[in-house]
């Protein structure tokens, strides 16, 4: 499945929200069991020694509704360069921020220490606990609007009690540009 290949990449420095949107929207009509089976088939065929396919962890977060806890389970793939907010419910998709149906990645690198959790552990979590999102992601049809970045900054401010740093805003803006270039 070509959509999964593009979204599965663990190179979060070049994260493209459009690839994640395409993967989620391709898996959603399959239903829960078949979508998870498609992810497992993809993982079984992937060269995990070259890339652990951590991008699929992000696909799963957006494919499924926020759990009753108010936030998705933590990712155990290393220590994120930016910590989760004090109230995890304020950013339930962390390390993603969902704005205008566009998933933006707040963390592009993780410090690996020890063994990272395999993607399959999250697949099992969602198999046991997940409820598929109600509808596909439908971002703005044209290039992302400046308001999207403004709303992202506001959600960040609400979650962390401070404005995002200029480097963070630049990173989010670059993600939006990559998404627009892919369209």
Q: Which SSEs are present, and which pair or pack?
A:
Blueprint: H1 2-8, H2 17-27, H3 32-45, H4 55-63, E1 79-80, E2 96-99, E3 102-105, E4 110-111, H5 119-129, H6 146-160, H7 166-182
Antiparallel strand pairs: 1-4, 2-3
Helix pairs in contact: 1-2, 2-4, 3-5
Q: Can you walk me through this structure?
A:
Strand 2 (96-99) and strand 3 form a beta hairpin. Helix 1 packs across helix 2 and helix 2 (17-27) crosses helix 4 (55-63). This protein starts with a helix and ends with a helix. 46% of the residues lie in helices and 7% in strands. It has helices at residues 2-8, 17-27, 32-45, 55-63, 119-129, 146-160, 166-182, and strands spanning 79-80, 96-99, 102-105, 110-111. It is globular, with a radius of gyration of 15 Å. The protein has one domain (2-182). The chain contains 7 helices and 4 strands, in the order H-H-H-H-E-E-E-E-H-H-H. The protein is mainly alpha-helical and 183 residues long. It has a two-stranded antiparallel sheet with strand order 1-4.
Protein structure class = mainly alpha
> Can you list the strand order of the major beta sheet?
1-4
Mean pLDDT: 87
Number of strands: 4
Helix content: 40-55%
Largest sheet: 2 strands, antiparallel
User: Rounded to an integer, what's the Rg over CA atoms?
Assistant: 15 Å
Catalogue the unreliable spans: none
**Principal-axis shape:** globular
Based on the model shown, name its key terms:
7% strand, two-stranded antiparallel sheet, mainly alpha, 7 helices, 183 residues, globular
